[in-house]
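Re: [ENG-882] Designed sequences occasionally contain unexpected residues at chain ends

Forwarding the minimal case from QA. Structure tokens:
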């Protein structure tokens, strides 16, 4: 469980940071189609906010993974 949360946490964190940098600075044009924020049509115009939310969700999942790790290790 902890490994799955960690992988998804890092994936969401990278998607959030990548989407934010690509939207604000226009870098990584080659990665435009790899970012979730650019693939969802209902996020058009809200890419910055969606990337921030995705990044925060990544941090939350990483924190939960650490919590699960400490709980499993303490038993």
């Amino acid at each position: 469980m902890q490994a799955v949360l960690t992988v998804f946490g890092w994936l969401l964190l990278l998607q959030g940071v990548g989407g934010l940098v690509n939207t604000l600075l226009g870098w990584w044009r080659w990665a435009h189609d790899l970012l979730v924020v650019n693939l969802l049509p209902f996020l058009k115009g809200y890419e910055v906010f969606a990337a921030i939310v995705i990044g925060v969700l990544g941090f939350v999942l990483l924190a939960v993974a650490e919590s699960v790790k400490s709980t499993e290790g303490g038993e």
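QA comment: On inspection the terminal residues look reasonable. The helical segments are 2-25, 36-39, 47-74. Proposing we downgrade this to a documentation issue.
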